[in-house]
Amino acid sequence: MSSVLSIEAPGEVRLVEEKLPGIPEGGFMLATTHSGVSAGTELTYVKGTNPYLSSTWDPALGLFAEGTPSIAYPVRGIGYMQVGLVVETRTRAVSEGALVAMCYGHRTAYVADPMADRFVELPDDLDPMLGVYVAHMGPICANGLLHAAHDLHGPAVQRLGDGVRGRRVAVVGAGVVGLLTACFAMACDAAEVVVVDETPARLAIAAALGANVLAADEDAAVDLKRRWRHGRDDRGADVVFQCRGQTRALALGLRMLRPQGTLVDLAFYTQGAQEVRLGEEFHHNGLTLRCAQIGRVPRGLAHSWDRERLSHETIALLRRYGGRLREHVITDVVGFAEAPRFLSDLAARRRQTVQAVLSDHVEDEGG
After folding, report:
1. H helices within the chain, ranges in order?
2. Each residue of 83-95: pLDDT tens digit?
3. Which of 82, 226, 231, 277 maximizes the CB count within 10 A of its CB?
4. Before 74, cis peptide (omega within 30)?
5. Which residues sit opposite 231 in a β-bridge?
6. Count of other CB atoms within 10 angstroms of residue 59
């Protein structure tokens, strides 16, 4: 049996028991050791704001339309940051006792089929808790840098940092996506990385990771452009990574760009983008806005920059920044039994977190 997180209706979260299927030939069984919580995407299901809950997604047309919602309650097994211990295997692709990173939702056990399920075996020198970033969250952020590299070099991209190396980079939003993206930019030798956020506590985390920081107030764009000069009438960030799902953050990011600069958007705007102003800086400075969504790498790079390579880049980043990420970014470790109340409290803003991890391992409770 497996305990599975289930969102029964908006604001109603509980654990349900599900019977595990038999292990197929070539498959293996996992016992979950760590399951990372996305306080952005996952809470849209708890709040009832995710567009899949109210619209039909047509993958052929790439459009949301009126009709039967693509996802209905109860929503079970959300979550995309899992680490599991292989407890039984019927394949030589992975050994019993191995730790693997996967995306199979918040559940205490899972039966995997390597022909259908992607997994990444974790190296022995990596903190297992940091493994929650390897399969999906890290590649999301790495794909943002890949889009910046493609913007500068097209399909001739050779290294992940080709779009930020030696350049001035602003990261708007100091949530998990913004903090990991800032670490990637610093690891790829950006000339300077400034993280911009409204919350002093989150800016303190960004500073602890080694970034420069700036409060996201009405003077932020002016301050940044006074700091970063390229020429007489050429000031601002070479590239902005927009990592906060608030339209005012997107508007601020556009204002921070130098003329003909690029904003790479990794955020999810569940309420649309009414506050974005396209008749001012966006138009007059000839800016570029690119959406970096993990479902696609930039055009022409799919063969050389697949998800496996982005996971490899994530492991390299975690080896370099893992200690600081573990200390400053993972703010809550919660047992699975506490998860329903924890997610409900996050959705209702009764509790705050940066990165929460579900884990029943006693040795991890102090994290």
Report:
1. 41-47, 137-153, 176-187, 200-209, 220-227, 247-256, 281-284, 307-328, 339-347
2. 999 999 999 999 9
3. 82
4. yes
5. 234
6. 7
Question: What is the amino acid identity at position 62?
Answer: G
CB count, 10 Å around CB of 199? 15
pLDDT bracket for residue 161 (50, 70, 90): very high
pLDDT at residue 66, rounded to an integer: 87
Half-sphere CA count of 297, side-chain side, radius 13 A:
22
Structural contact between residues 81 and 135, judged by C-beta atoms closer than 8 angstroms = yes
Residue type, 49: T
Residue 195, SS3?
strand
Query: Cα separation of 138 and 188, whole Å?
Result: 15
Tokens of 348: 């209702």
Residues of the chain by 3-state class (helix, strand, coil), percent to 5? 35, 30, 40
In the three-class reduction of DSSP (H, G, I as helix; E, B as strand; rest coil), residue 140 is classed as: helix
Q: What are residue 76's DSSP bridge partners?
A: 6
SS3 letters across 142-194: HHHHHHHHHHHHHHHCCCHHHHCECCEEEEECCCHHHHHHHHHHHHCCECEEE
For 136, phi then psi, to 5°, come to -140, -50
First to last CA, the chain: 28
| pTM summary value | 0.93
Signed CA dihedral, 159, 165, 169, 173: sign only: positive
- Exposed / middle / buried, residue 40 (Cβ in 10 Å: 0-12, 13-18, 19+): middle
> How far is Cα 22 from Cα 24, in angstroms, rounded to an integer?
6
Tokens 């920044």: give the residue. 321
Largest CA distance in the chain: 68
C-alpha closest to that of 225 among 234, 213, 214: 234
Structure-block tokens of residue 360? 């029943």
Contact 151, 290 (CB under 8 A): yes
Which tokens belong to 366?
Answer: 């102090």
Write the DSSP symbol of residue 236: S
